[in-house]
Amino acid sequence: MKLNAILTIGFIGTSFATVWHMRYHKVVKQTYNKDQDTFRHYYLILLSLGLALLIPRAFTVIEVLWAFSIYLEAVAILPQLVLLQRSRNIDNLTGNYVFLLGAYRSLYLVNWIYRFFTDLHRVRWIPWISGLVQTALYADFFYYYIKR
């Protein structure tokens, strides 16, 4: 098995463990406020799936799934950002986590610029536009984070 496949399976496993922990662990459940968490995340899933079916790199199962994951990753932070905006009470750990997550995604832009000039000037529209959308979603949070 290739190292990339092993790391991908590990990433998916830890992602499921994190979601399970957030949904079912007693300590986390006590801090969850269902009244403020009203974002309809199902729309993001449907929008991402629709885009993946309409705009894949190639119309194969793997390419559609890849495009779906890229589109969904671009908007996956939106429910968290909306919740943070509604609550107006952001603890340091959450604020720092979201800031570093956005900074990490912003560094993708630097990587893409570097790879464009060193990798035969290949254009990768799906990840580039999705990454720009995701970074733009973080822009408002960055502004208030730095201002604070």
From TrEMBL:
GO terms for cellular component: endoplasmic reticulum membrane. The chain crosses the membrane at residues 6-22, 42-59, 65-84, 96-114, 126-146. Keywords: Endoplasmic reticulum, ER-Golgi transport, Membrane, Protein transport, Receptor, Transmembrane, Transmembrane helix, Transport. The keyword Zinc-finger does not apply. InterPro entries: ER_ret_rcpt. GO terms for molecular function: ER retention sequence binding. One of its GO terms (biological process) is vesicle-mediated transport. The keyword Ion transport does not apply. It holds the Pfam family ER_lumen_recept. It is a multi-pass membrane protein. It is found in: Endoplasmic reticulum membrane. Belongs to the ERD2 family. This is ER lumen protein-retaining receptor.
